[in-house]
Amino acid sequence: MEYPDLSALPAELREAVSRRGSLNVFRMIMHSPRLAPGLLEMADAILQHNSLPDQLRELAIVRVGHVYGAPYEVHHHQNIGRLVGLGQAALAAAATGSTEGLSQEEASVLRCTDRLLARHTLSDAERAEALEFLTVEQLSDLVITVGFYQLVSNFLNTFGVTTEGETSPYR
Asked: How many domains does the structure of the chain reveal?
């Protein structure tokens, strides 16, 4: 799918793409100019105001990307994960779903992410396990993060978004 002509968009939308490094995902989202502002605001909130520790947030996002077969998502969030201190063992686990070698918290977040992806909810026992180390706010943010990146991955896959032509801001 071709990227929309950004020059045909209102100035505030062109600025929104530019402010985010003109990454391909943000360019492609402009096919929905009336929904894009809200989507971008939600993305910013998840990355900047999430109560989950950054490493756990990125572990969940990378797992969603792998399960959804969204290489664009995996690429960018592995890079962000490394920047925030997510280890190679956790990144490898996100690819496979195996919890071997992970901390108790990482393993629990990975299991919760997989349960949300497979069953769209957590059982009482799974919720209780997560609440042993997460606050209710953090669990809520985990569920919202997983759901949001399911949406993003569906969009990326449907529109065939790749990293072609990008220079990654996550170095």
From this structure: 2
Give me the torsion for CA of 134, 69, 29, 3, rounded to 10°: 160
Q: Show pLDDT as tens, one digit a residue, over the chain (171 residues).
A: 899 999 999 999 999 999 998 899 999 999 999 999 999 999 999 999 999 999 999 999 999 999 999 999 999 999 999 999 999 999 999 999 999 999 999 999 999 999 999 999 999 999 999 999 999 999 999 999 999 999 999 999 999 999 998 876 655
DSSP state of 10: -
Looking up residue 109, the CATH number of its domain turns out to be 1.20.1290.10
90 three-class SS: helix
Is there a contact between 66 and 41 (Cβ–Cβ < 8 Å)? no
Q: Which two tokens mark 43?
A: 């993305």
Its pTM stands at 0.95
CA-based radius of gyration for the chain: 16
Burial class (CB within 10 angstroms; exposed 0-12, middle 13-18, buried 19+) of 20: middle
Shared-domain flag, residues 146 and 112: yes
